[in-house]
Amino acid sequence: MLLSTRLLCFKVEARGVKSNCFGGIWGGQLQRWENGSYDKDGSLKDLGVPDNPAILPRMAKLTDNMLEFAEEVKSIEILDKSGKPILTKDLERRFFEAPWIHKHNGIYYLSYSTGDTHLLAYATSDNPYGPFTYQGVLNEPVQGWTNHHSTIKVGNEWFLFYHDIEISGKTHLRNVKFTTFKHNADGTIDPMKTYFGTDWRF
Description:
Layout: E1 2-4, E2 8-12, E3 18-22, E4 58-61, E5 74-75, E6 78-79, E7 97-104, E8 107-113, E9 120-125, E10 132-139, E11 149-154, E12 157-164, E13 175-181
Parallel strand pairs: 6-10
Antiparallel strand pairs: 1-2, 2-3, 3-4, 4-5, 7-8, 8-9, 9-10, 11-12, 12-13
């Protein structure tokens, strides 16, 4: 089971382990916490070093009441297929915000928003703490500046819940949508295209 807000998700595995994955840059402000304490004068976007590894999402196990961390917060590493960290300048693959983890056939899927490139991307691992290997696009751009999401299995079918601005036409007034998807035999997920118009409003 998973429960999510814009910048975090709570993961409860079948064996009862509860975890919180969270984080985001820009408004999520992870870039102001990279030295271990909050820097009120820090960057408004990222760390400003394009060739350095990108800022990473975070995760920690929770206590049984889900109100406190039961361990030290850890970074969730995202690597390319050659085993190298995704870089800050790699805007179509780097983590921006809204991490989400689901598990299928023994594979953990970390999906997240790339923010200013308007994609949902995903990476896979055999461990919920990673490292995760980038696999590709989960959801192509929707109408509106950004997209946040969740994935959930109901019966034998998987659903992607996401948002766009079809009703309001304003990027800060979002409506929820969903679509179905499948995991391929090799563990990949085909990119989902859910908007077919031209009025992107980025």
